[in-house]
Amino acid sequence: MSQNDSRNEGYRPHESQDDPDPSEIDRPLIGPRAHVDYEASQHEHKACHEHERSNQHRAPRSPDLKLGVRESTRPRLRSLRHQKDNYSRNSKDCGPQTEKPYAVAGNQSSMNIIELKKGDKPHPKLIYRYKTRQHYALDLQRNRKGWTARLRPRPLPHEVEKSCESELFQWMVQEPRAFAAVEDGKEVGWIEIDLNAFKDRTRVWEFLVQKEYQRRGIGTALMRKAEVVAREAGSRMLVLEMQSCNIGAMAFYLGFGFDLVGFDRTAYSNEDVERGEIRLELGKLLKD
Questions:
Q1: Which end of the chain has the smaller Cβ count within 10 Å, N or C?
Q2: Burial level of 279, CB count in 10 A (0-12/13-18/19+)?
């Protein structure tokens, strides 16, 4: 790949090549730990009510004693509600936020997804690298009635290796949300999205899983997290850019529900079609 290719704005090979196994894709994300604490507080809340009812059915007591029982119970109930409300607020405002760990497919260890903030710490460079022997060849024909376009997989003359370097929180990302997959205390995958409120579309800017951790469901979990955040923001579509020669990434995206929404024949150079590397725009509808 030429140096001009790596400097093109928006060039993202999107190296993740997780196997789009339906059993992995349909697996929901684990919710935040607030649900666990909320259920625990509900059990304590119920216990306090049962304690109060049992005191009311005992032998008649003096008004002062009965009032003392109720007064000692109410602060406890208020305290439980206060703790639950504080936890809900803090879980939204304090970062990084961590999801409940769950087992990664094909591995006994656990993996967490945390949200990254721009000023938290130096974030690692993202090195995209893959090899390919195929590409989606574009056949564009023009006639009196319009244009006819076809994209079909075709072999390349020889194996090609693609690579480039990128980073999180670049200046062109207007409303960034970045997440990392952490396994055994190490960040092994990343995804960054841009919540574009103007067009109601969320764009995936960065998406990478380290090679030794691919095909284990980590990329699926990160992309599902991005979809959840996009839906919560009211986005109508999740979109991303990829190259026509990245066959492995295409298989993952198609399995996740993306489809072709457009292409650019000259995004990286004037010879993109001849080189077998044109820009493809993929999208997944989040709203009808």
A1: C
A2: buried
